[in-house]
Amino acid sequence: MPDFVDEAALYIRAGNGGHGCASVHREKFKPLGGPDGANGGRGGDVVLEVDAQSATLLDYKRRPHRAAQNGTPGQGGHRAGANGQELVLYVPDGTVVTHADGEVIADLVGHGTRLVLARGGRGGLGNAALSSKKRKAPGFALKGEEGEALDVRLEMKTIADVGLVGFPSAGKSSLIAAMSAARPKIADYPFTTLVPNLGVVEAGAVQYVVADVPGLIPGASDGKGLGLEFLRHIERCSTLLHVLDCATYESDRDPLSDLEALEAEVAAYGERTGLDLSDRPRLVVLNKVDVPDARELAEMVTPTLVERGYRVLEASAASREGLRELSYALGEQVAAARASAPAPESTRVVLRPKVIGDTPFEVASLGDNVFRVRGDKPTRWVSQTDFSNDEAVGYLAERLNRLGIEEELAKLGAAEGAEVYIGPEDNSVVFDWDPSSNAEAVPSGPRGTDARLG
To answer: Helices 255-273 and 292-307: crossing angle, nearest 10°?
Structure first.
C-alpha cells in the first residue's frame, strides 16, 4: 500500500453514555436510607484536529472504523460513572470532511483547528436524581444514551501557494528540487511523481510553498492518467505555474499545444467540480533550456506566449539557469495574492435558541389508526427507558403525557388501540394507545406483548 493517501472513508461512533444506577442506601439501623444510585458517565466525543505533523490519510485507510470510549455506569453510594475519554483523530492541514452523499461538513484549515464530529451519549440518571416528593424512592434508573454514529469521507487538499502544472516528465520535480530543499523522486520516465510534493522557497523576504503534482495528460479531468486524483491539490494555490518541456522527444508535442492542453484540463476540472480556476494568476516557464534545441524553441514561442498575456520565463534545473528570476517572479505573485486577500475574521460563536412556544414533537397520522411521534425528547426518553421495569415504563408514560402527546393524538382522531410509533424510523418502539388509562399508552415493545404503561 502506498505511503501517501489523500482520500479515506471513515466510520465513527461516539461513546455510549453509562446507565444510571438504582440503589437504596442501607446500613445498620437504617434499612431504608433513601435512594443513592448515581448517574452514568457521558460517552466520549469523536474529534478531528489538524496536526502539522500529519501529512497523509493512510492511517484511516488502513483502519477506517473508529470508536470513542463509553461512559461507565453509575453505582450506589452516589458514585457517579466516569466519563468516556474523547477520541482525537489527527488529520493534515487542508482536510475536507463530507457526508457519504457529498455534503460538506467542514473544511479544516489551520494548525489546531478542531471539529467535534460525533458527540457522546449522555449518561442515564440514577434513582437519586429521579427522586421527588411524589416518587421518594424510585426503583428504577434511566439508561444511557447511545453516542452518535456516522459515515464520513476525508479528502486532503494540499495547502500551497504555487501549483506546478505540466505534462509527465516536463521537469516539475527537478525544478522543485532545485528551488527548495524538497527531494522528490526524479527519473526519465513518465509518471515518476505519484504523489504531491511540497517545497518551501525563499525569494528575498517572501517565503512560499510550491506544490508539484503528478503530470497531466489530455483527458485527465475525465479520469485518464493520475491528474483527476491530484488536480484537487491545486485548488488552494493562489498562483499556477505552467511548466512546458522544450526538449520533449515526442514529435506531436510542442510548448504551445502543451499549454493549450493543460489549460483545457484545468478548465474542465473547474467545470466538473464547480470551482472557477480562471482567475488564478498564471506564469509560464520554458524548461530545459540548457539543451541547445530547447533554447531555440523557447526563443521561438516566447513572443506568441507573451501576446496571449502570459509572463514567460526560461529555466533549467540542470544548469540552474533562470531559477533566481523564476523564484522572485513567483514570490511577487504570492505577495500580491496575500496582500489582496481579505483579513481573516475571528471565529464567531452563533447561538440559535429555539423559538418560544415551538412544539418539541410532531405527531403524524399514517392512516388506519396508526400514528408516528417525531421529536428529540420523545425519542431520547424512549431510548432511556428500561421496558423490563414497570415503574420505569410508568415514568415514561407520565413524561409523554406531560409533553402533550396524548392530547395531540386525541386531536388527530386516534381511537383506542391505535398503534403509536416513537423512535428512529428503522427501530421504533410501538405503543397501543389506551385513552381511558392514566398512562396513555401500552407498549407492545416486541410486538404481541401487553405491558401497560403506568
So the answer is: 50
Grid coordinates representing 305? 506566449
CA distance 452 to 454: 6
* pLDDT tens-digit series, residues 295-328: 888 899 999 999 988 899 998 888 888 888 988 9
Cα–Cα distances in Å, from 326 out to 24, 263, 312, 322, 342? 79, 20, 9, 6, 27
Kindly state the DSSP code that residue 231 receives in the 8-state scheme.
G
Report the side by side order of strands in the sheet with 87-91: 87-91, 46-50, 114-118
Q: Which of 118, 62, 125 is nearest to 88 (CA)?
A: 118
State the CB neighbour count (10 A cutoff) for residue 174.
Answer: 20
Q: Is the distance from CB of 80 to CB of 94 less than 8 angstroms?
A: no
Amino acid symbol at 373: V
For the chain, the farthest-separated pair of C-alpha atoms sits apart, in whole angstroms, at: 106
Q: List the Cα angle 315/320/325 in 5-degree steps.
A: 55
* Residue 345 neighbours by CB distance under 10 Å: 6
Residue pair 243/166 in contact by the 8 Å Cβ criterion: yes
**What is the grid cell recorded at 353?**
435558541
Q: How far is CA 382 from the centre of its chain?
A: 30
The rounded distance, in Å, linking the Cα atoms of 294 and 289 is: 5
- The pLDDT assigned to 217 comes to 56
How far, in Å, CA of 258 to CA of 166, rounded?
8
Cα 198 from Cα 209, distance rounded (Å) = 7
The answer to whether residue 453 scores a pLDDT higher than 80 is no
203 beta partners: 206
In total, the chain counts a number of residues equal to: 454
> What DSSP letter does each residue of 228-267 carry, written as one string?
HHHGGGGTT-SEEEEEEESS---TT--HHHHHHHHHHHHH
Cell numbers for 114: 478542531
User: How far is residue 15's CA from residue 37's CA, in Å, rounded to a whole number?
Assistant: 22
> How far apart are alpha carbons 243 and 258 in whole angstroms?
9
pTM, to two decimals? 0.70
**Strands 65-67 and 7-13, bridge-based pairing:** parallel
Residues ≥6 apart with Cβ < 8 Å to 232 = 6, 155, 157, 273
**pLDDT tens per residue across span 228-239:** 556 777 777 888
Round to whole Å and give the CA distance between 349 and 347: 7
Instruction: Tell me the CA distances in angstroms from 253 to 48, 217, 408, one per residue in order.
Output: 46, 12, 75
DSSP 8-state assignment for residue 220: G
Q: Which amino acid is at 312?
A: V
